[in-house]
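Explain the record.
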Amino acid sequence: MGTTQLESVPEPKYWHLKTVLSDALDSEFAVGEILPNERELAARFGVARATLRQALEQLELEGRLQRRRGVGTTVAPPRMGVAVADAEHTWPGAAADAWQPVDSTEEAPPAAVARLLETEPGQVVHTVRRARKTRGQPVAAELLYVPASSVPALAAIDAPAGPARARAVLRALQHLQLEGKERAVELGSARADDAKQLDRLPGAPVLLVTTRYVSGGRTAAVAVATYRADTCRLTFGDAGGAAVQLLAG
């Protein structure tokens, strides 16, 4: 076989720069130290700022750097794996659940979620917002969509908006018999609301974990969790199951 066109493509400049920057992070910078601005870095390494940004974005994705609002780009701390795969046959909000309820509103879900819920486009559902922290660091934000048909008794519960209402929706969900879950993971970009909650910049790389909860032969709820891609990874066990791990310094 001849050499393919892909094999003859040279290494991109930003990829070589990423390696050089990684070596500099190990030898010249301390954990938490703020890097010089893009203009200074581009001049030091003799590259265009666009090339520099690509290299910095790759290092951020790999967890070597963190970009923080009002601070700049800093060297990320060493990371420790904390498994967060939900192996238990439980609903969100169970006793061992590490998520914290933030709020609950009634609004129409995105079209993709509505299809999973098998609800009409534009139909309002309970939307529970939850947050996850590790060692005080925000690592994930979640939107849990629950149709009114899944929690018919909720209308009789007098709970105000906010965490109290969110807990009421979660308690009502516990009365259903959970038959199974389906989970999908994909790489995405942080929306403005999620970025603010996760202390990231809009458009930062994130892992989107969508979980469909099944009860009575139908979809009873759908959760869309947004994990910081710089602090999370996927692991695979011997049985072939995938787990999401948080990597917090």
Observations:
- The longest strand covers residues 205-215.
